[in-house]
Amino acid sequence: MSNDNLHIAVIGSGGSAMAAALKSAERGARVTLIERGTLGGTCVNVGCVPSKIMIRAAHVAHMRRASPFDEGIAAVEPYIDRPRLLAQQQARVDELRHAKYEGILEDNPAITVLRGEARFTDANTLTVTGTDGTEREVRFDRAFIGTGAGPTIPPVPGLPDTPYWTSTTALDSNTIPDRLVVIGASVVAVELAQAFSRLGSEVTILARSRLFSREDPAVGEAIETAFQAEGIKVLNNTQASQIRYTNEEFVLATAGGRGTYTEHRQAEPGGYRRRDCPQGDFSR
Tens digits of per-residue pLDDT, 91-141? Predict the structure, then answer.
């Protein structure tokens, strides 16, 4: 079958899904892209882009407090207006999503975008349930599943009953908590821990082993030293064994004792899990 006759179904609209859709269309295939959420996937909406904007703002705040030029440039304690920072962050996300995803899809006549949730009904058929509940059948020759990933939630007793944060909800919050506990010591956990610290939170990191346990030990040691200088507390070889939320406070029990932390919080895992693939029997 030539590429001109191929119909390719792409489930998802993140980086890999977009690459598959665009390359398929470039080579002559007809493409149907299905997205149940916001176009653009994780990176531009709730991952790389908003996190780096927040991290950059936190870096600016940090440099205003102290820099190598403090002898000639007076240091000041910055006023943090998180709602305005969040609005600026979201405006940039919206701009990039339109430029890199929505606009490109709109201008490509070989790609049809369907909004809804897909499930396989057989090896060459998808049923797409739209946002209004209506169903549409999509027949295809090839399928690409790019459903992305989501934060791994640690199985800590009591955690599901609390209003914990993940990286997604932390980036979307319009408040900076007075105190923040980060469960996890991966890249995402560590970068957001430092950002919130520089924006005014008192941050404690609970590391099951150590910072960046999958990397050379010198990497984690160097970052821990830098964090100590910035006032970020790192508890190595520490796991939360019980969490409860009462009177707007989180109470965490660990192997070493108990700690009470007020305001908001982040349950930041050490990694991501793949999102479930669309259901259905397509083994044929």
Answer: 999 999 999 999 999 999 999 999 999 999 999 999 999 989 999 999 999
CATH of 1-148, one of 3.30.200.20, 2.20.25.100, 1.20.5.440, 3.50.50.60: 3.50.50.60
Domain ranges of the chain: 1-148, 151-272
Look up the CATH superfamily of 151-272.
FAD/NAD(P)-binding domain (3.50.50.60)
Interior angle at CA 141, CA 135 and CA 147, nearest 5: 60
Specify the 3-state DSSP secondary structure of 274. strand
Which of 205, 259, 212 lies closest to 235 in space, CA to CA? Answer: 205
Residue bearing tokens 């064994």? 241
Question: Residues with Cβ < 8 Å from 124, sequence gap 6 or more?
Answer: 139, 140, 141
What pTM did the predictor assign? 0.87
Report d(CA 268, CA 249) in Å as an integer.
Answer: 18
Question: What are the DSSP calls for 136-188, one per residue?
Answer: EEEE-SEEEE---EEEPPP--TTGGGS----HHHHHT-S---SEEEEE--SHH
For 150-181, how does the pLDDT look when each residue is reduced to its tens digit (9 = 90+)? 888 889 999 999 999 999 999 999 999 999 99
Q: pLDDT, tens digit, for every residue of 14-27?
A: 999 999 999 999 99
Q: Per residue in 121-134, is it b (16+ CB within 10 Å) or e — as a string? A: beebbbbbeeeeee
Q: What is the CA radius of gyration of the chain?
A: 22
Domain 1-148 and domain 151-272 have a common topology: yes
